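Please go through the sequence line and token line underneath and see whether the fold suits the sequence. See right below:
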Amino acid sequence: MAAPDDQLTTTDLAIRAHDITVCLERTTVPEFDFISLLGMATRLALHLRGVQAVSYPTIRDVAVYLLDFPSSTVVKPVLELLAEAEFVKLDTEGLTIRTVIPDIPFYEDVFTSLGNVAISQSKISEPEFLTLTLMKKLSASPMLVDHVYQTGAEKKLVDRVIDIGSKGNYLINRRARGRSVLLSPTYFPENVGAYSDLVAANGAHKVKRVLELLKENQGWPLIKIETERAIGQISIDDTEIQVAKMLAGEGFLPPPAIETTHAGVNSFLFGPRPGKTQLPPEKRPVYEAAMALVASVRQGQLLPAKYAIRSPIALLSAFRDRGYIRANTEALEQYRQVAALRVGRIIQVENNWGELHLIDLPENREAVDMAITMVSGSEPQVSAREDIILSLRQGEKYVESLIGRKRILENKPVEIDEETQEAIDTFLLRGRE
């Protein structure tokens, strides 16, 4: 088992189970009773927030055909877990569920409450515990496979967990500089080779520290990191400075850059872009726009020509609520990329003074909200698919249009290990005696 300082909270249980379940899609894992039930319950709960009463057949079809539940037989246990957490009320007739009435709490409470209920009802198997612990570690940074073997778990169990994760598409075991590096595309969806090389060359601890600091200080200018030897208010050493420079270099996605006449060209570093469990593909443009906004306000906060932005959060909040940022002499250069992405338009008021006006579209407001979250040091919330939420609100006809002809679904079981297969074979042979 993992060391005491790796102990999972009930919130961790639900978040990691959700992430694993999304990646598995319709792949079933014999060892994953707890993870599968909790992950499916969490995923369904996120899509039921704000939805009124829904018929059971509608929820069943959405769960199976749109949320990749392995079969209709698991829908009822999932709903019963949600009912135990008081997230839904079930209108039943005998053993049949007729209608589901959702009452999903605030975002943070979903994970904590479901984790508490699940752990009170079920026992986590050793493979599940190691998998959840490993995913928590990998959410912060890729790591050397050698370090996984140092958790205290048996080598055979570690090998099995890595094998399941590789087949389930939430783990990648990659060779770099003669060392095996483990990472999760759930949290590091891009630049797999570059991250593997970074960890192999500089050590997982150094990379983890830099990534954690960047997550807490999104959009920090590389020039400030180099000259002040710090990210935010935290000092870093030579190796960590080198890691930061490598994150801005070849092999990684180019960070947002802003060119001004007074400060030249500057790159603004961010933590890894969220994977598909946090950010569906259709939200990628929103995230890119949020990064541009963050880089712009960091430019004004940390690299101003004259007057520095005192509070990026206050400025972004005013931009969202008031609809514009007051005129300043740096707006034309500072917000050029924001205007290019059609989040706002720069209106020149006099000479070199300009105001940034929000283009009032839902996706632009979402980008501003996301930018505020990023500047505050928080991660984007796990996103639900808007088309699925709409289908739950609209009922059976809308669900049918989404499902179309997709009525026969194939499950992909992860192959069992040799020891289990041998036990099954022995049992079957005995049955023939």
User: Anything to note?
Assistant: The radius of gyration is 24 Å. Residues 420 and 426 are 10 Å apart (CA to CA).
